[in-house]
Specification:
This protein is mostly helical. Helices cover 48% and strands 0% of the residues. The chain is built from four helices and no strands. The two termini are 13 Å apart.
């Protein structure tokens, strides 16, 4: 979302989407900044969710207040972090 709508303003070079070494090719084929932004957003999105198999039911207790808004927290965090890293 951040890359397509904000950075590239919905303009794509279709040939480069499928070409190794094109403008959308990153180190080894992976955009590690995007992976990092996704991982951080994912941890914040589900970090406080209720998981009964764990000792206290929460994998990261201090993230519990974010659990009710997980999708928004994850999306917002990932979007802002991705833009900052790019």
């Amino acid at each position: 979302i951040a890359d397509y709508w904000i950075l590239r303003r919905a303009r794509l070079h279709l040939v480069d989407l499928y070409r190794r070494g094109g403008r959308y090719w990153y180190g080894g084929g992976w955009n590690w900044r995007a992976v990092l932004a996704f991982a951080v957003g994912g941890v914040l999105a589900v970090g406080g969710a209720d998981f009964h198999p764990l000792v206290d039911g929460r994998p990261v207790p201090f993230l519990e207040p974010l659990a009710d808004y997980g999708w928004a927290v994850g999306l917002g965090t990932s979007l802002v972090l991705y833009l900052a890293l790019m």
